[in-house]
Amino acid sequence: MPLHLIKLCVGIDDVDQLRAAQERRAYRRDGRMVVPGFTRRSPRRPDEVTDGGSIYWVIKGSVRCRQRVLDFEMVQEEEGGTWCRLILDPELVEVMPQAKKPFQGWRYLADADAPRDLAAGQGAGQGGDLPPHLLAELRELGLL
Question: What whole-number distance in Å separates Cα of residue 77 and Cα of residue 116?
Answer without folding.
Answer: 37
